[in-house]
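Kynurenine--oxoglutarate aminotransferase structure dump, as promised
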Amino acid sequence: MTLKAKHSAAPLNIFTTMSSLAKETQAYNLSQGLPDYPVAPELGTLLQEAVAKGYNQYAPMPGLMELRQSIATYFNRIYQSDYCTEHNITIIPGATYGIFTAFAALLEKGDEVIYLEPAFDCYVPAIEINGGIPVCVRLDEKKNFEVDWQRIQDAITSKTKAILINTPHNPTGRVWQQEDWDQLAGIIGQKDIYVVADEVYNTILFDGHRHIPGYLQEDLQEKIISVYSFGKMHHITGWKIGFCIAGAAITAAFRSVHQYLSFSVNTPAQYALAAYINLPKADNEASLFLQEKRDLLLNGLAGSKFRSRFTTQGSYFQLFDYSTLSPLPDVKFAQWLTINHKVATIPLSAFYKTQPHIPQIRLSFAKNDAVLNAAVKILSDL
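structure tokens r here:
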């Protein structure tokens, strides 16, 4: 017997491939968004406290009430709103799960979903496994990956069920402005089209940029689900925990699927995060911390053959053009760089369905300064 593939993506994704190659060659791993610095010690203490206090059994399906209330208070404060309550927040085992479950709740077989390339590699499988048809709209690389709104308008058909957006954007680092949301709302109008908003880097913003949540767009509030990640907020990617925010109808549909998938999420982690959110700390703590690392990378490569065409506005990542250094396609270049010079990166083509022939690689700066400095020295000497 043979099992038919449920999606058209690669059997093994590029992040696993490049991280494995980095380990095999003992290269500095700037490929995956995998922080290698310690997490806040309070989180570890609170996790131990949760276990000691008996938070070891299933949490309620929507998530611990304490955590949902803490998120609501925090988000309402930083985004100057009263929209969030414990009723429209659902705790999930990671943002990838949230995106998948959103499509499981929203899609019927044959529905089309518009997504923007370059795109994180979980998007197309999540659409296809849930019976949807991915419809690609490319961001304009000649204009630093701006959204071409006419292309989105032209891609909408009678079968369009949803549009998937990502801000701050991985891999480009572009952050949506209010006019972007207004354009999207204007295009959707009265159409029965939902929006799945991947907003996992919402707390990692640079140079004064601010995140504008999708769920606060009045014209979209009954049509949108925003997905967030504690892994990115607090540099705890291995905890695999996040949350979704949506209106009543979408929340009910989401939870009706969620209860039959994971049902609940790691209870000690929920306890720890509920308490940690309430501890006094700067709201822009992650942004300041990671902007220093971004600038270390950019300044270190400023005189090198690696050129940044667009300075990332948010996320863990910065794209670099290597065309003055090598004519190799980006996958072969990334492999060559890892094997021969011990710096692992991600080729930009990994974020495309069809090879775009753009000579750029993505570097993660969510690393210890010692790792960044060593990698910068190698790259700047090429």
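Residues 41-277 form a domain with the Aspartate Aminotransferase; domain 2 fold (CATH 3.40.640.10).
lmk if u need the other ones
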